[in-house]
Amino acid sequence: MKKTLLVILILICFIGCRKNSEKNKDLITGEKFVETNSVENLYDAVVVGGGLSGLSAAYNLQKELGENAKILLLEKENRLGGKILTKKFNNDIYELGASFDYGKAYAPKGFEPSELVKLSKNYGVYLDGTLYSAGNIPELLRKIDPKNARFFSEFDKNQNINKLFDSVSDDVKKAIESSFKVIHFGEFKDYIDERKKDAFKTYNLDFHVKGNYEFLDFYTKILKGNYLLGAEVESIEQKGNEILVQYKKGSKTNVLKARSVIVATPATVTQKIVKNMKEESENFVKSVRYTKTFVVVFITNRNKPIDFSYILTPDKVFNFFTTSFSVDKKRNIFSIYFTDAFINLHQDWKNDDYIKAAYKDFQSMQLVDLDMDLLHIDSCFWEEEGPVISEKTYKNFSETALNPITGVFLAGDYTFWNEYKIPYGIPPAYFSGRKASKKVVEYLKR
User: What is the pTM of this model?
Assistant: First the structure.
């Protein structure tokens, strides 16, 4: 009976991130966005990629160059936002992509966010049938392995990650790696030491009533239709003093001319479309590796409060899940995350395989009764969720590598490498776009 119910629920509720229904919409598509009707002569600047870095670049270019400047943003998908993907089921807003609060500091001037909903500051780890809870990760680790409580106190002071791994139980190691993958979906061993310490941090998942889409919506209104959706760029190359950008829209191939170009796409795309890159740039772009993730969202009736921001699940098929609730507090929203290693071991899996596995393991925790209370399922697969922050990649980084050919500049979170060494997420995406726009303005002045 339960298996039959699960299959029926999946058939009724399952909608992948590439397909929407009336009740379950991607909020960053449709009538809000008006495509540019024609391509004329020579553009001052073309931005390739409509994620946050591309939107930031286009917005800052428009602000710096003025309203008379000819600026065009090209995006291959039929929506803007990149890794920010807000969805809606009835009146419930949830995120299938970037789930962290966007932060007003990264929005255009004049933006006012909707009400902020604060979540629990309690965190959990579910191991061997036991759910531990605490207000921070070190305290969680102490609860899993009380015998090492003294060592954890010492670790809080010296942050010696290698010593920690030599001294604790296998359960604690699993919990540390699971905590690390709340923000980095790759393997712990592959990251630089500065990032390994992220395993001991907790993350704020407070959300705005209208979700992250309102942040993007404000950007696009300011851009006043200077973008083209469904336009997949195939090549960018320099011809004399001009740059030719070839793109395909539908069955038609088009070429436009530009004085400058910002490429705000993942490194894998950049490598394919920018022709005749200088060696320094090519070495950097080729060395960037990305992780995958699969996200499953369950919306259930809220029979009882779930007093956690997120719960680590190192011995389940998924790595962790976040807990939030509808604004009227009548429904729970659970976002479940599979990480790169698991996905690579199950390359033959389809979307419904992940959903069934998530359903089975989540139900076994007995936090809610999915068989009785499940209202909605959604999911999304991300092929390039985020860059692996490794020595191998960033030894190839330099500011000059971000200028692969004359007049072309790279943006995207992976390009924002500074003293904080975390080229990942909303702030680096925003700042990379702004930084690239400044380079373009200087270049055009010259």
Answer: 0.91
